[in-house]
Write a structure and sequence with these properties.
Strand content: 5-15%
Number of domains: 1
Structural class: alpha/beta
Oligomer: single chain
Order of helices and strands: EHEHHEHHEHHEEHH
Largest sheet: 6 strands, mixed
Helix content: 40-55%
C-alpha cells in the first residue's frame, strides 16, 4: 500500500509528462481512494484542448474558479532552462523563486515550488529560512506537500513512491493494450 500521509494533493499534467488523457480518471480515482484532491495542470501549447477535455470529463470545479488567481506555482525546470542555469537549485533560480514568492505574498497568494525536486532541494530549503518561509508547498511531478511536511525525513521517498505507483498503473494498462493489439496482429496475419 502506497503511503501518502505527507501528501496534500496529487497532480496530473499533460504537457511535461505526456499523461495520456485516459489515465486521468484512473489517477483521480487513486487520489480519491487516498482522500486527496486531484489537480490537473493546464498550460503550454495544449492548454485549450486540455480545458475542453477536462470540461467534458465533468471536472467543473475549474470553471467555478473563473479568472481569479488563487495561488502561484513556480516550475524551476523551465525557469532554469530559460536563463541557462546549471540546475534548479542554483542561486539564480532560487533568487527568482524568492522574488516571485515575495510578489505573490504581497498579494495574499501562496506559492508552491516545483521543478525537478530532489534531495538537494531539501538541503536548499533547510539552509534558506527566507525561501522556507516564502514557499508554502513543494510539488514533485505528481505530489504536492506542505513545505514543513516535505522537509520531514522520508517525504521525498514517499512522493516518489506515489509517482512510481501511478506510473506502474499506466504501464500495466498500456502493456495490456499492446499485448492485445499484438495478439490481434498475429491472428490477422494467419488469416491470409
Amino acid at each position: 500500500m502506497t503511503e501518502v500521509s505527507k501528501v496534500v494533493s496529487l497532480k496530473g499534467e499533460f504537457e511535461a509528462t505526456g499523461l495520456p488523457r485516459d489515465s486521468v480518471p484512473a489517477e483521480a480515482a487513486f487520489a480519491a481512494r487516498k482522500n486527496l484532491p486531484y489537480l490537473v495542470k493546464i498550460g503550454g501549447c495544449e492548454a485549450k484542448s486540455d480545458m475542453r477535455f477536462l470540461m467534458m470529463q465533468g471536472i467543473d470545479a475549474i470553471l467555478d474558479a473563473g479568472e481569479k488567481l488563487t495561488e502561484v506555482t513556480v516550475g524551476r525546470s523551465d525557469l532554469t532552462a530559460s536563463h541557462r542555469g546549471p540546475d534548479v537549485d542554483c542561486g539564480e533560480t532560487i533568487a527568482m523563486v524568492k522574488r516571485v514568492a515575495r510578489a505573490a505574498r504581497d498579494r495574499g497568494l501562496p506559492t508552491t515550488m516545483g521543478g525537478s525536486v530532489n534531495a538537494k532541494t531539501i538541503a536548499v530549503l533547510h539552509n534558506d529560512g527566507e525561501l522556507r518561509e516564502l514557499v508554502s508547498q513543494v510539488e514533485t511531478r505528481k505530489c504536492v506537500m506542505k513545505t514543513d511536511a516535505f522537509l520531514q525525513p522520508g517525504a521525498l521517498e514517499q512522493a516518489f513512491s506515489v509517482e512510481k505507483t501511478l506510473l506502474e498503473m499506466q504501464l500495466a494498462y498500456y502493456n495490456d493494450l499492446c499485448e492485445a493489439a499484438a495478439d490481434r496482429v498475429r491472428k490477422l496475419s494467419v488469416r491470409l
